[in-house]
Amino acid sequence: MCGIIGLKGNDNIAGEAYDGLLTLQHRGQDSAGIITFDGNHFHLKKGNGLVRDVFRTKNMMRLKGSVGIGHVRYPTAGSYEEAESQPFFVNSPYGIGMVHNGNLTNQKALRKDVVEKDKRFLNTGSDSEVLLNVIAHELAIVNGQKLSPKDIFKAMTAIYKRLKGSYAVIAVIAGHGLLAFRDPYGIRPLILGEKKTTKKTEYLIASETVALDTLGYNIVSDIAPGEAIFIDEDNNVHRQICAQNPSWAPCLFEYVYLARPDSSLDHINIYKTRLRLGQFLAKRIKKENLDIDVVMPVPDSGRSSAITLAHELGVKYREGLVKNRYIGRTFIMPGQEMRRKSIRFKLNPIKLEMKNKNILLVDDSIVRGNTSKKIIQMVRDAGANKVYFASCAPRLIAPCVYGVDMPTRKELIAYNLTDETIAKVLGADAVFYQTLKDLQEAAHKGNKAITGFCGACFSGKYPTAEVTEELLSEMEQDRKKKTSKDQSEEEGSASWTIL
């Protein structure tokens, strides 16, 4: 999961890219970067840290040009070194800067082809650098002094045949324009917006609509699965489906947790979807006839669902856990020990709301269970009588291979345990999970045209055919080796996982 943005036609491109990345900061806190093109030169600034820490006034003044792209990173492939922050750049052909959100499932084979057959040099372990070199190679083959939209889409047809997995991509091609495309299943989100001025029409492409809203752009459309969009030097927009047999499978975890509630993805409003998740959970919990005094969300992503859940149950809704907003998402925080400490500093209970009460806590998901266990104990220590725990997401039983760095299957608490056993492990009086059917329905109600979703982490069924048991086992072994290596190298391991 990363956040990407691309802008074309604005004289203050760097400033808008910076502001747009701030709105997408929740999608990645490891690194940030912007590259612009002024007609003669590329200007690049990137580094580890939050957007506000990477860029200074002097950096912004040097990022000149009317076309540019930006990125906030949450690593899922490669390492955590600054060299792997994005955007990536190659000088041949033409000069191309690129940002990528997603994960290539065939990156090992693709890396070998890029080096041995395409004769291109790779300097990092990032699959995004591999992807950029695939784009560069295919654009070089069409080999026009000046690329036409027809040339671009011809190259894109070849690119789609080589890539597997998930990818939402934006690229600047020097002297030509802005290129964006989305994988054939639309797993990772990408939206096109426009802003009409007296002089021209300006364009913005971003991971979420919140970036368009904040910067004053109107939504044109979501980029479709398998679709490529090319905005030329004269700001003409060219669009074409370049992948064979595309079909819908957007990531369901985006609607549960990843995206901001004030965003819409594929015309599905995140906030409304989460409200519906609370309604569906309430129907299940009502059947248990529990004595619940109060419903409390685990801030922030559990809040929307908790509101409707409380309403449907006819019990009080209270904010019993206060979040320290100066601590980032523990979801994307390096090191197990750092995550453990941050959870306690991040949340603090209001004991007055908890003492001698039967409390239903509502969170977005339960992954390994470490965070949930600590929160439940925190609430008990604050004086709660009984603590029930509801997950807006279904049971997580399989790793995501499409850009969310989840643990191996055996590390997922729901992989081989019953709900009753999970409740005992977490220290809860009972645990309630959303059903996959209800999650799909909650999202589907937002856009009936979406014919399917990716819920592989909940079902173990992956939409792309290359994800086999052999590939999953190989990826889990790679993860174990990397985690072991990181832990042996330094205290505060750089193994990043969802808790």
Task: Please give a structural write-up.
- The chain is built from 16 helices and 22 strands.
- It is of the alpha+beta class.
- The strands form five sheets. Strands 3-2-4-1-10-9-11 form a seven-stranded antiparallel sheet.
- Helix 1 packs across helix 7, helix 5 packs across helix 6 and helix 9 packs parallel to helix 10.
- The longest helix is centred in the last third of the chain and has 21 residues.
- The two termini are 15 Å apart.
- The C terminus is likely disordered.
Short account of what is shown:
This protein has 499 residues and is α+β, with helices and mostly antiparallel strands. The chain has helices at residues 13-23, 51-54, 57-62, 107-116, 127-142, 149-162, 209-215, 252-258, 270-286, 303-313, 336-346, 370-381, 419-426, 436-444, 456-459, 469-489, and strands at 3-8, 31-37, 42-48, 67-73, 88-90, 96-104, 165-173, 177-182, 191-196, 201-206, 218-222, 227-232, 237-241, 264-265, 268-269, 294-297, 316-317, 321-323, 347-349, 358-363, 386-391, 430-433.
Physical arrangement of strands within the biggest beta sheet? 3-2-4-1-10-9-11
Main β-sheet description: 7 strands, antiparallel
Overall mean confidence score, pLDDT: 91
| CATH-level-4 superfamily name of the largest domain | Aminohydrolase, N-terminal nucleophile (Ntn) domain
Work out the number of β strands.
Answer: 22
**Can you give the helix content as a percent range?**
25-40%
How does the overall form come out from the CA principal axes?
Answer: globular
Q: Are there runs of 5+ residues with pLDDT below 50, and where?
A: 331-336, 489-499
CATH architecture of the largest domain: 4-Layer Sandwich
> Radius of gyration over alpha carbons?
23 Å
β content, as a range? 15-25%
Distance between the termini: 15 Å
Q: Note the total helix count.
A: 16
CATH class of the largest domain: Alpha Beta
Q: What structural class should be given to the helix and strand makeup?
A: alpha+beta
What is the total number of structural domains?
A: 2
CATH topology of the largest domain: Glutamine Phosphoribosylpyrophosphate, subunit 1, domain 1
